Amino acid sequence: MSDIKKVNDQISIESVGDVALVCINFPPVNAAGIGVREGLSKAIETLNAEGRVKAIAIYAAGRTFVAGADITEFDKPLMQPSLPETLNTIEASRIPVICVLHGTALGGGLELALAAHGRIALEGTRIGLPEVFLGLLPGAGGTQRLPRLTGMAFALDVALSGRQVYAKEALDQGAIDRIASGDPRDVALSAAQEVVAGTLATRRTCDLDSELDQAAIDGTRAMLKKKQAHLVSPHLIVDAVEQSAGDFDAGLKFESDSFMACLDTPQRAGLIHAFFGERAVSNIAEAKGAPRDIAKIGVIGGGTMGSGIATSCLIAGYTVRLIEVAQEGLDRGMATITKNLEGAVRRSKMSAEARDAALGRLHPALGLDALADVDLVIEAVFEQMEVKKDIFGKLDTICKKGAILASNTSYLDINEIADCTARPGDVIGLHFFSPAHVMRLLEIVQGAKTDADVLATGFALAKKLKKVGVLAQVCDGFIGNRILAHYSKMASYLVLDGASPQEVDTALEEFGFAMGPHKVGDLAGLDIGWMTRKRKAGTRDPRERYAGDLADRICEQGWFGRKTGKGYYLYDDGAAVPPVPNEAVAGFIDAIRAEKGITPKTFSNQEIVDRYMTAMIVEATRVVADGTAKRPVDIDMVFLFGYGFPRFRGGPLHYADTIGAAELVSRIETYAKDDEDYWQVPDLLRKMAADGTSFADLNKEG
Ligand code: T1G
């Protein structure tokens, strides 16, 4: 016989004999919002005051146990009880309290479980402390309680990596006490009854000791100094875990103070913007239509892009037909896909069985006729309009009615391609980023005649491929490459005007980029840009300052970067040593400056960052203003997921808000004194400066 009583909209108590089951029900992920916190506190206080039951089990309804604090509350005033207070109430309960976990018990959700006197996880449960992804540290006892159960080394690994830990590992490490199967409520009932029967031991985590593991602490500090010096929260996580070796309450206080310090950092704002932005970009009307059914995908082109796209589709479970024009190319593509899948197994991204199944769904073929029965074609051949138009003209007659015809072009006009078919409504741009089976960005390019369900299918495909789909309108370079084409000139201008390539790279790496633009160019191959410049030579605007002098001179030596051992830097074949500047480049720079009568200036790191970032922001503003991108947040996500923009900065336009439109306008006007053609204030930015509005305001307007 059970009696269910609602504490509030999120929390209910079910009394069954001498145990009580507390159910959390706050869709979609049972985030620990104010209602959950109030309800849990009240439930525990009431049950202790009544003293009727001998054990309490907390579980959650829906898809997952508590997935963390309610991130939407972070920009609002703190509402009591805080999560730490709620968890301390649970831990102090006279009646033993256990938690039953399922789905993803993350952040505050895991901390809730750690504050209980015992933990049971259903099979398939994952636990984790992803606060570090948000520029935070566990702020509700995680840094104090987890080490008491598992030791410092595991606690540091989990809190700093933010990774999700499967139940088996969590059990082995002592973070949970048992793995069970069944419905969360039924497992909660039987576990509570076991507590009463004495067959399931319980103890307060705060009563345990956390043994100082100095080696783990010191080793972690050394790693962070090298890899994450510019981030705030990881270092505080180590400090807090170290404090767990001391007095529990003092440790909680240290953790709380550290958490509040992180809450105010621009890094936290940037990372939270990234978290919600990743979801917002596909949460748009264009993505909501009913998608077409896709099961078989044809990929045309077995080169780097085509193989990467095919790999991504295979990993997602699709059947893939790989098309090439010659057997050699087809064999090369098949070999690349096989290697990509082996890599996925090696990185534990897929099992060996899944790899074999994927290879079983891969069907190579010569010629386009093999595409008659596919649901979607993704063309990934050479970036030449004539080649693409010829292919799409043939696909139009070969492919079945309703098949979607997509081009992976990185900048060509989708409308021109669509118009060489009798079915422009079925044509769309799906711009993947190399390596396509690793990079998460997918620019979904809407042609003027692309059907609504085709667009929706693009977003559904992105989700299935675990990619971040961003809507882009047709223009040269769409969103990312159009903006890149503008600000990459700034890196060249800075070098011609006085900085060295390595000074530009160092300044931008200190800003947070993993690699500066010259190292990126060397990695990608300088010949790619060289070919583009030569292709565009005839149409280049004579008024514009040419940015390719130095790169052309380097390429004319046959130096294309890492693949030739020489570029802006020198590369020691296979050696793990960092690249050293190519001294010959300095000679080219001096010669070009002399030819152009340039007196070199000195640029501080900040000046380099300011000019480079302002150039990026200028073109990004234009891309928002002309509607190529739907909102500023869409551009931010393009740069986080496709261009290695430092995630803690939130993206170029989130970063722009930390400077402000008025200051940006003033900077551009100052720079324009040296080059008024390159430096022009976008009308939208001037309006924002006049109105005192931000890109965040534009995001809200949608
Ligand atoms: N708070 C508020 N909303 C959240 C949320 C959260 N913690 N997590 C997810 N959502 C929303 C999300 O925005 C989306 O909304 C919907 O739920 C489905 O999410 C004190 C301070 C749990 C693995 O960082 O990793 O605890 O778009 O699309 O792919 O120490 O959500 O539908 O309107 O991602 O199945 C720590 C973040 C917080 C976990 C599910 N926790 N969430 O993935 O669904 S800080 C996290 C996730 C903290 C304490 C600290 C994932 C997921 P909408 P979704 P999913």
TrEMBL record:
<feature type="domain" description="3-hydroxyacyl-CoA dehydrogenase C-terminal">
    <location>
        <begin position="608"/>
        <end position="692"/>
    </location>
</feature>
<protein>
    <submittedName>
        <fullName>3-hydroxyacyl-CoA dehydrogenase</fullName>
    </submittedName>
</protein>
<dbReference type="InterPro" id="IPR006108">
    <property type="entry name" value="3HC_DH_C"/>
</dbReference>
<keyword id="KW-0520">NAD</keyword>
<dbReference type="GO" id="GO:0006635">
    <property type="term" value="P:fatty acid beta-oxidation"/>
</dbReference>
<keyword id="KW-0413">Isomerase</keyword>
<dbReference type="InterPro" id="IPR008927">
    <property type="entry name" value="6-PGluconate_DH-like_C_sf"/>
</dbReference>
<dbReference type="GO" id="GO:0070403">
    <property type="term" value="F:NAD+ binding"/>
</dbReference>
<dbReference type="InterPro" id="IPR001753">
    <property type="entry name" value="Enoyl-CoA_hydra/iso"/>
</dbReference>
<keyword id="KW-0560">Oxidoreductase</keyword>
<dbReference type="InterPro" id="IPR006176">
    <property type="entry name" value="3-OHacyl-CoA_DH_NAD-bd"/>
</dbReference>
<dbReference type="Pfam" id="PF00725">
    <property type="entry name" value="3HCDH"/>
</dbReference>
<keyword id="KW-0443">Lipid metabolism</keyword>
<dbReference type="InterPro" id="IPR029045">
    <property type="entry name" value="ClpP/crotonase-like_dom_sf"/>
</dbReference>
<dbReference type="Pfam" id="PF00378">
    <property type="entry name" value="ECH_1"/>
</dbReference>
<dbReference type="Pfam" id="PF02737">
    <property type="entry name" value="3HCDH_N"/>
</dbReference>
<dbReference type="GO" id="GO:0004300">
    <property type="term" value="F:enoyl-CoA hydratase activity"/>
</dbReference>
<keyword id="KW-0511">Multifunctional enzyme</keyword>
<feature type="domain" description="3-hydroxyacyl-CoA dehydrogenase NAD binding">
    <location>
        <begin position="296"/>
        <end position="472"/>
    </location>
</feature>
<dbReference type="GO" id="GO:0016853">
    <property type="term" value="F:isomerase activity"/>
</dbReference>
<keyword id="KW-0442">Lipid degradation</keyword>
<feature type="domain" description="3-hydroxyacyl-CoA dehydrogenase C-terminal">
    <location>
        <begin position="477"/>
        <end position="571"/>
    </location>
</feature>
<dbReference type="GO" id="GO:0003857">
    <property type="term" value="F:(3S)-3-hydroxyacyl-CoA dehydrogenase (NAD+) activity"/>
</dbReference>
<comment type="pathway">
    <text>Lipid metabolism; fatty acid beta-oxidation.</text>
</comment>
<keyword id="KW-0576">Peroxisome</keyword>
<keyword id="KW-0276">Fatty acid metabolism</keyword>
<keyword id="KW-0456">Lyase</keyword>
<dbReference type="InterPro" id="IPR036291">
    <property type="entry name" value="NAD(P)-bd_dom_sf"/>
</dbReference>
